[in-house]
Amino acid sequence: MQPSPQVSAQPLRLLHFSDTHLYDQAEGRLLGMRTRHSFEAVLESALARSPADALLITGDLAHDEAAGGYRLLRDRLEQTGLPCYCVAGNHDHWPLAREILGHFAPPSGSIAPLGAWRLALLDSSLPGKVRGHLAPHRLDALGSWLKTNRAPTLVCLHHHPIAVGSAWIDNLGVDNGEALIALCADHPQVRAILFGHVHQAFAQRIGQLELLAAPATSVQFLNQSHSFAVDTRPPGYRELLLHADGRIETRVVRLTDYPEHPDLEAGGY
Ligand SMILES: [Fe+2]
Fold it and tell me: Which parts of the chain span the membrane according to its record (predicted)?
């Protein structure tokens, strides 16, 4: 059972992390960056700024499908004492992740309460594929739930449901993202879709619906790049202030003076 945040007039502070890409080995590197170190630095910085009410991690929790990264993540999430929710990414071994993370990794389709808000947690991963897909029965179940539940809602998944302007990764989003966006746009209580996978900050509005990506806590990808390219921006996260009336204030926060940089010559990952 996860702790439940207090209901109050103050907005809830949700910290959205993504693409931690943790390795079994403590010094494991993704494109030259030690991802355990960058994750711990981002988490520590985020929690030190002001009290948080909950954490969300939108996938690619581990890079190598091994237990060590998930164990580290579980230990760090337990230390926060906060409600924490993880969804599956294309790099994850989800049965192993769920076995180790327990209640931090609820089943796909779970609805997590967060004060007046709800988080709808979806698994968009496809075994053996980099791109994503949402099973039609999951979309149908979300649609049925939204018909009778009017609380302001955040839909959370790993893959991007909309093009972010980088051709190489726009081929690797959730391949039925239009259906998800149409469903959410039809239900105005869905205030935002939150995702990762693109390793860059992204924000776009369609009507009243916000589409928001968190940067990776690990390596950043260059935005608006036709082909694969690494960015020099430091790791970070997205902060969301969730007001009880359904308003969202959000910003991206990055580490300053982070000493380690990715290999800019990398041609892929
Ligand atoms: Fe990733």
Answer: none
Q: Is 125 in contact with 160 (CB distance < 8 Å)?
A: no
Which pLDDT band holds residue 267 (cuts at 50, 70, 90)?
Answer: confident
User: Does any domain span residue 216?
Assistant: yes
| Residue range of the domain that includes 149 | 12-254
| Amino acid code (one letter) for 210 | E
CA of 198 to the centre of ligand 1 (A): 7
> Residue 266 above 80 pLDDT?
no
CA 2 – ligand 1 centroid, Å = 26
Give the count of domains, the chain. 1
Centre of ligand 1 to C-alpha 253, Å, is 18
CATH number at residue 72: 3.60.21.10
Cα 118 to ligand 1 centre (Å): 25
